[in-house]
Amino acid sequence: MNPIGVVFRSVSKTRSSTLALVIAALGVVFGDIGTSPLYAMQSIFALDGGVVETTQTNIYGVVSTIFWSLLVIVTTKYVGFILQADNGGEGGILALTALVERSVGRVNANGRRVGKARLIALMLGVCGAGLFYGDSVITPAISVMSAIEGVAVVNPDLSHWVVPLGALIIVALFVAQKWGTGAVGKAFGPIMVLWFSLLAVLGIAQIVQHPGVLAALLPTYALHFIITAPGIAFVAFGSIVLAITGAEALYADMGHFGKSPVRRAWLFMVFPSLVLNYLGQSALLVNTPEAKVKPFFLMAPSWAQLPLVIIATMATVIASQAVISGAFSVSKQAMNLGLLPRFSVRQTSSKEKGQIYLPAINWLLFVGVMLLLLIFRSSERLATAYGLAVTGTFLMTTGLFLMYARSVKNWAVWKLVVAALAFGTFEALFFSANAVKLFHGGWIPLTIGICIVFIMVTWRQGLRMLFERRMDITDNWNGFLTKVRAQQLVTVPGTAIYLHLNPLTPPQALETNVRFNHMIHERVVIIRGLTSSWPRVYDDRRVSVDTEFTDPNITLVTVRFGFFEAPNMPNAIKILRKEGVNIPDEPFYFTSKMSLIDGEESAMSSWRKKVFFFLYHNQAQPLSYFALPPKRTVAFESRLTL
Questions:
Q1: What residue ranges of the chain are covered by domains with CATH 1.20.1740.10?
Q2: How many other C-beta atoms lie within 10 A of the C-beta of residue 477?
Q3: Which of 591, 152, 67 has the alpha carbon at shortest distance from 378?
Q4: What pTM value is reported for the model?
Q5: How many angstroms separate the CA atoms of 642 and 636, rounded?
Q6: Nearest Cα to Cα of residue 628 among 590, 574, 582
Q7: How far apart are CA 259 and CA 10, in angstroms?
Q8: Model pLDDT for residues 346-402, shown as the tens digit of each residue
Q9: Domain 20-460 = CATH 3.20.20.80
Q10: CA 511 from centroid of its chain's CA atoms
Q11: CA angle, 163 as apex, 160 and 168 as ends, to 5°?
Q12: What family is it from (predicted)?
């Protein structure tokens, strides 16, 4: 065997694999930011009749600001720094929150980290996740509408079909979610390669006609625009941020492809294509100011506009799909971190763990997107509602990263100050400019974010109250075992597995079985399912047996799942057998279903308690959440006054 040939084939295979990952990343990671040229420049110069006039000074100042925003926030902050903060290979604001939580605060007697720093990190993560949902509702609506509106450029008589066509595409998009994205996903990458190539070609064609626009890459044009016309620049900042929406996806979807493919895709294709297209639109506006109504589509010759509309629509569907999939992933992480109740999760691919479908989240997003589509009815008007959620998420991520850089990377104070000023100045300007649009649509994503934060905080507090109430009325293990030994119980052959969170008290289902049925299995295994702050847990660290609990018939076990994993208890049982725990092939599982009753005295207000009760009673039950076998699972029902 020729060793040189082996090395060559190995290198060739590695390069092919890397290229495939880069192309795949183009289809999933960059769909949102990649479709921003459809509406960003149009929103800046055409919104409300054109608040920002299409003078050469303004055009150069705007495109210069866009370029430096892409360079500072996306390239430097996200690609350069944020991608370093991976949590076991996973990214996203909740993954970063879990990463920071592990490293800040002090450790209490129970081994948990507590303190103000941990609380601040948690609140930043919760607020950022809430705003992400606001972004997830607006992105499909504005992306699809901006593409469909191209038919009015091809033929103005078709403008009345824009909203019905947009609604039809949105309906098809959300209905298709239940079948998963595996089949469609294979085509995403090549389509986006074509899309970014078109962005570059369209831009170059216009730059050739007005090459002077290349001078706008100098920062002096952005500074001159801001200094000489601060009022106009402030208004423009509210729409310039549209050019960097989707930057958070670079970090959130890092776990699917790894840092290197994401970075390469951005640096070698996405970033250059976006810059060329924005420069091309600017060149077009300098030569033809009236093109501001639809500068993207008017860059193309008339014969190419209809095909461009079709390709743009495909690209926006991909962008919408990426955001929807992101919402599923964030919801799953939030559930496993105890920030949201358990929703039904369906795995749509036997090969890709990241391809999941959450029916409840899907249809809530659908209702929100359709309402926005029917209320605003155009991408221009939707642009007024966009931006506030995005810039808010930017600020939350920056705050969390600075905490990470200090506690994990041990950055010096001067480095933290420089990073805060470099990123925070841009993001604070964007946020304040979009805050002005609060009463012109900006309240929509903010309201969605506030509602999500409220739900997360209420859920977390309600669970804590429930835990404390159970501790008050339930015997500890010593008291329970004393009562068991005092009774003449029937011992049933076999092994019973009880799912229970609190290791200090016996499971409610076990208590009920003993109290009312006067029986207990000869072997009882109590499993405490926990979610780790790591995205995935290796099998050799998944289970641990409590060796201090000495009852001969009862075994206490802890099973850990990563926050990015779907908890599967039967698979964990297989690992327990390898660890020496005596469990038969087909054990019986016992769970409890509790009905909550409103009590008079409580630390939570009555109306918030009703929200918690609604969430608690409608969450997915352990049977489906832990993938338990229905024919061998027994659920006991009880009531608890809270």
A1: 20-460
A2: 16
A3: 152
A4: 0.82
A5: 19
A6: 590
A7: 21
A8: 766 555 555 678 888 999 999 999 988 888 887 777 777 778 888 999 999 999 999
A9: no
A10: 39
A11: 125
A12: Belongs to the HAK/KUP transporter (TC 2.A.72) family.
